[in-house]
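subagent[fold] <- orchestrator: predict structure for attached chain, return tokens only, no commentary.
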Amino acid sequence: MENLLKTELGYTTLKQIGSGGGCINKGVAYETNEGKIYVKYNTNTDARMMFDGEYESVLAIMATNSVKIPKPIKVMDLPTGGAMFVMEYVKMHQGLSKEASLLGLQIAQMHKHNENLAKQAKNDASNIAKKCENELTYKSQFGFHVDTCCGYFPQSNNWTSDWSEFYAKKIEFHIGKIEKDYNDHSVRELWDRVLRKYSSLFEDLDIIYPALLHGDLWSGNISETSDGPVIFDPASFYGHSEYEFAISRMFGGFSADFFNSYHSVIPQTARYKERLELYKLFNYLNHWNHFGSGYKGSSINTLKNLVKFLGV
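subagent[fold] -> orchestrator:
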């Protein structure tokens, strides 16, 4: 790996200064003759697709000029299989303490960015055909220009005009996998009941602007530096802004200051709590498929809550 870094990126010196990683990938930090870098790597055959999606996610988030995220450098195939993702090294403090309120504002700005482009386009029709300075244009549909991975499963991000349809497909993917891998049909039975009144969960919304999402905004993917908040490990797509906070609330680590700050820009809607339960469902199913049936109970309970909300 170090030889590849020198060959492809022209580094003449590499000194390992740290290592780490999470449930999916491993990571190594290096001091180079051009500064510090962080390298994520994974030896699985689908790693290149996963890192390509993350690379594009980072570029999109950077283009909103809303929140700090480590700059991407390059994605490369490993000679022995798999891939690595080279990025800027950012010295982070552990967790989020002083900057929770500011991060809430910044995530709201990121979510509002595409809506603001839409409003600009209405004021000046020529804006639709122009790229703004940060290279993003208004997206009228839900999806992303590449598939991204929440964990190691690919998320199909084909552009779709209807959010409820886009989200239902995400659920269907995981239910289908659970049926295949675990021969468990209890989730399917409950989901089919939810589908009878599924569309009513969105009736209080006049319009859902596609918002650029981090896509995996749990406490393990946020931190702060001496200069302010930082986020990382995105699995982005354009979706409903409320989707972002299902996993944030599931595992904690986000203070009231964060949410109060966010909702000062994007207020809670009438059926926010019901939809939060709906959006938690994806994350519980995704964790079931990644880490096993320990997440079955949470998945079933979430579906039962939805059945109760909908009266089906």
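orchestrator: received. Logging for downstream: Residues 142 and 162 are 7 Å apart (CA to CA). The radius of gyration is 20 Å.
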